[in-house]
Amino acid sequence: MGEHSHTRTTTKRTEQSLVFAVNGERFELFQVDPSTTLLEFLRCQTSFKSPKLGCGEGGCGACVVLLSKYDPFLDKVEDFTVSSCLTLLCSVNGCSITTAEGIGNSKDGFHPIQERFSGFHASQCGYCTPGMCVSLYSALVNANKSDRPEPRPGFSKLTVPEAEKSIAGNLCRCTGYRPIVDACKTFATDVDMEDLGLNSFWRKGECDEVKLRRLPPYSHGNGTCVFPEFLKNKTKAGFNMESEACYWYSPVSLQQLQRLLQMDDANNETSRKIVVSNTGMGYYKELIRFNKYIDLRYIPELSIIKKDHTGIEIGAAVTISKAIETLKEANEPQFSQEGKLVFKKLADHMEKIASGFLRNSASIGGNLMMAQRKHFPSDIATILLSVDAMVDILTDQRQESIMLEEFLGRPPLDSKSVLLAIKIPCWRLSVDISSQGYTKLLFETYRAAPHPIGNALPYMNSAFLAEVSLSKAGIMLNHCRLTFGAYGTKHAIRARNVEEFLSAKFLNTSVLYEAIKILEITVVPEDGTSHPAYRLSLAIGFLFDFLYPLLENPSEISSFWSDGDNKALPFSDFKGKQDSNQLDQTKFSTLLSSAKQVVQLSEEYNPVGEPIKKVGATLQASGEAVYVDDIPSPSNCLHGAFIYSTEPLAWVKDIEFKPGSSLDGVIKLISSKDIPGENIGAQTRFGSEPLYADELTECAGQRIALVVADTQRNADMAANLAVIDYDKENLDPILSVEEAFERCSFFEVPSSLYPEQVGDFYKGMAEADHQIHSAEIKLGSQYYFYMETQAALAVPDEDNCMIVYSSSQCPELAHGTIAKCLGVPGHNVRVITRRVGGGFGGKSIKAMPVSTACALAAYKLQRPVRMYVNRQTDMIMAGGRHPMKITYSVGFKGNGKITALRLDILIDAGISVDISPLLPNHMFCSLRKYDWGALAFDIKVCKTNRPSRSSMRAPGEVQGSFIAEAIIENVASILSLDVDSVRSINLHKYESLELFFKSSAGEPLEYTLPSIWNKLGTSSSFYHRVEILKQFNRCNKWRKRGISRVPIVHEVTLKATPGKVSILSDGSIVVEVGGIELGQGLWTKVKQMTAYALSLIQCGGIDELLEKVRVIQTDTLSLIQGGSTSGSTTSESSCEAVRRCCDILVERLTAFKERLVEQMGSIKWETLILQAYNSSVNLSAISLYVPDSSSLSYLNYGAAVSEAKSQKLIPNNEDVTLQVEIDVLTGQTTILQTDIVYDCGQSLNPAVDLGQIEGAFVQGIGFFMLEEYPTNSKGLVTAEGTWTYKIPTVDTIPKQFNVEILNSGHHKHPSGEPPLTLAVSVHCAIRAAIKEAREQLHSWGGDESSSTFKLEVPAIMPVVKELCGLDSVQRFLQWTIGS
């Protein structure tokens, strides 16, 4: 892009201007609010909207940009990614910023990265895609600058592992990551093209040469970031600004820094912030304003990297990434081999901290200061403590060097104290090797966290350094350093009593056992720490993993060490051979193995059925796709933020703000008193909920008021400063389903929606050989975690009208809600939705209050009002998936055949009805996948004083699927039968199918589930893998594997959907549908259907129709009766509506064409349309597709997951096979392989359906494995954004993810929800692995049952470890000693 100068001037005194570049454009600012982030500037003051606000804490990658700095002394440019949501604008002086638009765009041409993301179907909602592309681009730029050998033509110097890890810190909620990784790997020089999945560039079986030729061409020039010449003359010194209101200083010496601190002390300065990167703000949110910032990056003593024979000194302002690079490259001759090993392992551990774009800016000193002052659970503090690191600090005008241990143990340093540098010593052997036999220095670090390669705080971190000697008498531990951190303590500690016990002792099992006993009283988590017993067990497991391999095979160690080769430290190599060393969670050289995607293609209805690229995917990759928050703010636009209740039931007496707080930019507080119409914020056919609590707030998280301010940040900050005065006297909230049951607090379920019971339960129980009574299951909630949070923009229009841009799945319902709230006719309101950055049901009902609140504020103030709900507030208000309690009784035969099942289910609906009355029917649909003999139930929808729950992908169905499998698992465990055989014997026969599904069962020959079950067993090598797994579990103590095969029958409901097709005079085609593009490919499928249906006119040029079709945004005044985009069926319904419109147009044009052909001979499309236009042929058609009764009752079967929901019966039977591995010492689960076979009926676009299948399954992995959505005792959500709420990442998906799509030819089956229910197979496989661990534990002594146990949802690491035995190490050692 060309150079432009953007200048901001002011009359206030300044010392220096802030100069930087964005995508080549020059910006010069003279006055800046020092708290402004780079993201705020980019989105509010430039045209570049690709960096998105996803979390505001550096945890999602949506805001990632490339930052380039020029070093005039080395004459080179350093390029690295940063989180623009945390990077302060004043810190980018002299830097060049590159966003996704700067990499490539529609005007200047797209970059191969963006084209390959599109061609590999790696973008669905697209909100995360620009950040992904920038992350990969940075990896390419830096790899190509390396001195590695030149790559093959068409490739970069990037390796496959680097390509995979380049996006490891970026979150995606839609795709399931596999296609994203494939797009990244296309640039890797060592990629095997056969490993790459389905794409739009080549077909299966083509040779590598053809594949490479068809890829968008890439050369080194594509991977070179050009640094603007006008910035190279910019001095290296930082930016300095001083005005009446705010200051930014960049001192260049310690003396300048001391003067600034002294000046503040003299002025009693309290609003000062010392910064290096500002990344700490992502964890410790700022609730006050600072008016003075001091940037430490330009002080030489804080940026130094110095190496000598004593070790490495690293300045406190050095970034973690730079520290990692320094430690990895520590190959100087003055360093001992032992020292080099320590440095390398420190670096390896640091690479697991946070994500790359945070490590690139976060400083090593900042991390340690947070640990010292605020007790941040730092990995760096723990690992450096183990190697006797020292720190230099500046306190009270004096400089001192102290041990890191003393530094951490001091009282929190005051704001005038500054950490200057860290000194890491170079370790050497402390004894004479010749006198002590063979002596080695051993060093290992450990970390247990939900995500293996970073972006997650640890449950526990540890580092152990030990010097051991081998002699004929045995292995002596000469001395050691044992450190533990992040376990619920103020700071990392050294376990000195354990160290003293072990020092100078010969190691044996008894000594190790005694050391562990001492450790048990040393590592004591503080009160209030989550999972304290688990954290202690981790400490024990880590120490065991470190020392026990020395004892397990002493003869092998002796022979290994006696070869006299001292050039390397063999302990790590030896440990790698041992089963017990399983705690290195990055042991896979690549994150993912090659996967198989099998699709059946047909050209019969071309382009329908073709795996074409998703419409707009390349625009999404370049960041040019427009979401609601990307719409430029109209003039005088205001911003809103909700004030919500923190009490579950209370009278609201008053709203004030914290005394002395600065309410900058606040315009007005809007509450229920300002509503001119009804107090309504959302509505469904079952009822409505208020926009704001009137006087009584009925749940924590309920909206009470809206702060309206001049910026979103000012609005959010003011909302955080709100203090609500409550009166809770004589109010008793209902906070559990048990309380709701006791107080008969229920929502009514219409009889038409309540499912019918099947068979005679009491008769079935009488026939049973065995019975289980009143077993309980509890299921929690799940947060949507759409990458784009709730967003809306309301703009007052003429004649008392209101235009609202909403990120909504059902604009029609939002339209009606807004009109009622404002008290205006429906034609005075227009709701427009172009695209949504992820929905999953959360943008259906829950989006309405946001749109309505903006419309009300705009109506009252007669100014545009917009809102982008921050992640924490969104999590508190979202509600999410329905929690429930299930009590069941089941009868069964000795062979596992179930004869009767009764379920008593209490569903927590929260305070408002929402769509909760649909849950019983949805659950019943999913439960019917097995023949229960007789099925009885009592399902109650409970009204509680918690946030209302809403529809979330496969609502009720995912819970129903889990309940069914939990019952099957319990029956199998009671009978000590193989669970797969119990599943098999309870699959429907045709007779039971008719009983459970009635008329929708179809003909006997149509029932193919048993054959599909057997087919999957063969195609996935299920039985062979079971035998291999048994052998593996026999040979491995500390790793156990489990495998599970699960079927599912899913019912689909289609609903009425409108469509409109218009042909313009030039032959281009405009399509409108009621459905919303959420990332599910709705526009793509509609475009394909339109092109096919209009091609039936049979004239010249119809092969090019696909490129002539444009699907446009939804407008509630242009196309009515749009309904809700939900249930994963709207794409297919919209296609049918469009097809009917096209049929009308084809009928009109065919007769006209025949007349023209008689006159002109052959005719081309453009000519036909122009002639029809001039002859006043109606070239627009509208249709409302309403499913007829014949399509409401049929079954379809397939071996995999199949789409479904609501009320049209299209049950699809699917199977999935899955294999997992658990680490018995930590509870870490790795999904080794997943095989899914899915029947799409007639897939409209196999590539889109494949993406839906994989994405839904991975979202299900989150529900069953990772995602905790906790609340406090008042029902207020306590999950803190990306720090504590962990959705799946690229390192937690199946290592091998095989999907086969079948086209049975029966109907067009959606693909977004059934795969999610199939993710229960992950949970079942984990359970199978735990069962193996428990059997082993039982063999070591103990009375607990090895087979009968409950595995909670989600099966997070502490849960898995507890079931494997928190004391498994102690019991193993006791057993070993005893035997």
TrEMBL record:
<keyword id="KW-0937">Abscisic acid biosynthesis</keyword>
<dbReference type="InterPro" id="IPR036010">
    <property type="entry name" value="2Fe-2S_ferredoxin-like_sf"/>
</dbReference>
<dbReference type="InterPro" id="IPR016167">
    <property type="entry name" value="FAD-bd_PCMH_sub1"/>
</dbReference>
<keyword id="KW-0500">Molybdenum</keyword>
<dbReference type="InterPro" id="IPR016169">
    <property type="entry name" value="FAD-bd_PCMH_sub2"/>
</dbReference>
<dbReference type="InterPro" id="IPR006058">
    <property type="entry name" value="2Fe2S_fd_BS"/>
</dbReference>
<feature type="active site" description="Proton acceptor">
    <location>
        <position position="1313"/>
    </location>
</feature>
<dbReference type="InterPro" id="IPR036856">
    <property type="entry name" value="Ald_Oxase/Xan_DH_a/b_sf"/>
</dbReference>
<dbReference type="InterPro" id="IPR005107">
    <property type="entry name" value="CO_DH_flav_C"/>
</dbReference>
<dbReference type="InterPro" id="IPR036318">
    <property type="entry name" value="FAD-bd_PCMH-like_sf"/>
</dbReference>
<dbReference type="InterPro" id="IPR037165">
    <property type="entry name" value="AldOxase/xan_DH_Mopterin-bd_sf"/>
</dbReference>
<feature type="binding site">
    <location>
        <position position="174"/>
    </location>
    <ligand>
        <name>[2Fe-2S] cluster 2</name>
    </ligand>
</feature>
<feature type="binding site">
    <location>
        <position position="379"/>
    </location>
    <ligand>
        <name>FAD</name>
    </ligand>
</feature>
<dbReference type="GO" id="GO:0009851">
    <property type="term" value="P:auxin biosynthetic process"/>
</dbReference>
<keyword id="KW-0274">FAD</keyword>
<dbReference type="GO" id="GO:0051537">
    <property type="term" value="F:2 iron, 2 sulfur cluster binding"/>
</dbReference>
<dbReference type="InterPro" id="IPR008274">
    <property type="entry name" value="AldOxase/xan_DH_MoCoBD1"/>
</dbReference>
<feature type="binding site">
    <location>
        <position position="840"/>
    </location>
    <ligand>
        <name>Mo-molybdopterin</name>
    </ligand>
</feature>
<dbReference type="InterPro" id="IPR016208">
    <property type="entry name" value="Ald_Oxase/xanthine_DH-like"/>
</dbReference>
<dbReference type="GO" id="GO:0009688">
    <property type="term" value="P:abscisic acid biosynthetic process"/>
</dbReference>
<keyword id="KW-0411">Iron-sulfur</keyword>
<keyword id="KW-0001">2Fe-2S</keyword>
<feature type="binding site">
    <location>
        <position position="953"/>
    </location>
    <ligand>
        <name>Mo-molybdopterin</name>
    </ligand>
</feature>
<dbReference type="InterPro" id="IPR002888">
    <property type="entry name" value="2Fe-2S-bd"/>
</dbReference>
<dbReference type="InterPro" id="IPR036884">
    <property type="entry name" value="2Fe-2S-bd_dom_sf"/>
</dbReference>
<dbReference type="Pfam" id="PF01315">
    <property type="entry name" value="Ald_Xan_dh_C"/>
</dbReference>
<dbReference type="Pfam" id="PF20256">
    <property type="entry name" value="MoCoBD_2"/>
</dbReference>
<keyword id="KW-0520">NAD</keyword>
<keyword id="KW-0560">Oxidoreductase</keyword>
<feature type="binding site">
    <location>
        <position position="172"/>
    </location>
    <ligand>
        <name>[2Fe-2S] cluster 2</name>
    </ligand>
</feature>
<feature type="binding site">
    <location>
        <position position="447"/>
    </location>
    <ligand>
        <name>FAD</name>
    </ligand>
</feature>
<feature type="binding site">
    <location>
        <position position="85"/>
    </location>
    <ligand>
        <name>[2Fe-2S] cluster 1</name>
    </ligand>
</feature>
<feature type="binding site">
    <location>
        <position position="63"/>
    </location>
    <ligand>
        <name>[2Fe-2S] cluster 1</name>
    </ligand>
</feature>
<dbReference type="InterPro" id="IPR036683">
    <property type="entry name" value="CO_DH_flav_C_dom_sf"/>
</dbReference>
<keyword id="KW-0479">Metal-binding</keyword>
<dbReference type="Pfam" id="PF01799">
    <property type="entry name" value="Fer2_2"/>
</dbReference>
<feature type="domain" description="FAD-binding PCMH-type">
    <location>
        <begin position="241"/>
        <end position="429"/>
    </location>
</feature>
<dbReference type="InterPro" id="IPR016166">
    <property type="entry name" value="FAD-bd_PCMH"/>
</dbReference>
<keyword id="KW-0408">Iron</keyword>
<dbReference type="Pfam" id="PF03450">
    <property type="entry name" value="CO_deh_flav_C"/>
</dbReference>
<dbReference type="GO" id="GO:0050302">
    <property type="term" value="F:indole-3-acetaldehyde oxidase activity"/>
</dbReference>
<feature type="binding site">
    <location>
        <position position="128"/>
    </location>
    <ligand>
        <name>[2Fe-2S] cluster 2</name>
    </ligand>
</feature>
